[in-house]
């Protein structure tokens, strides 16, 4: 692992310290988890934008997926 120095608002550090104490973890462990979650969310948002852009460029045509209708199993 690598050590990274960060500058945070005093109020944010105070809130962080309260949370990590309740969770029984450290600032570093909590921050690693939060950063991973933020990076994962950014990646998902990027993929969703690409997905939407693709459908904007090439929208679904009427009847395009009709062949799959019989394959769907919906509960009663």
Note the run of SSEs as H and E: HH
What's the assembly state of these chains?
single chain
Largest sheet: none
Mean pLDDT: 94
The backbone outline, from C-alpha atoms, is elongated
What is the beta-strand fraction? under 5%
Q: Count of DSSP E strands?
A: 0
Low-confidence stretches: none
Alpha carbon gyration radius: 22 Å
Structural class designation? mainly alpha
End-to-end distance: 52 Å
Number of helices: 2
**Helix content range of the residues, please?**
55-70%
Describe this structure in words.
There is one protein chain. This protein has a domain at 10-57. The N and C termini lie far apart (52 Å). The protein has two helices and no strands. By secondary structure, it is mostly helical. It has helices spanning 10-23, 27-57.
């Amino acid at each position: 692992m690598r050590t990274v120095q960060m500058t945070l608002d005093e109020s944010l550090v105070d809130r962080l310290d309260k949370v990590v104490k309740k969770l029984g973890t450290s600032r570093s462990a909590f921050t690693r988890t939060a950063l991973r979650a933020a990076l994962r969310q950014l990646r998902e948002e990027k993929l969703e934008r690409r997905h939407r852009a693709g459908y904007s460029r090439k929208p679904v045509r009427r009847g395009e997926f009709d062949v799959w209708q019989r394959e769907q199993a919906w509960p009663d």
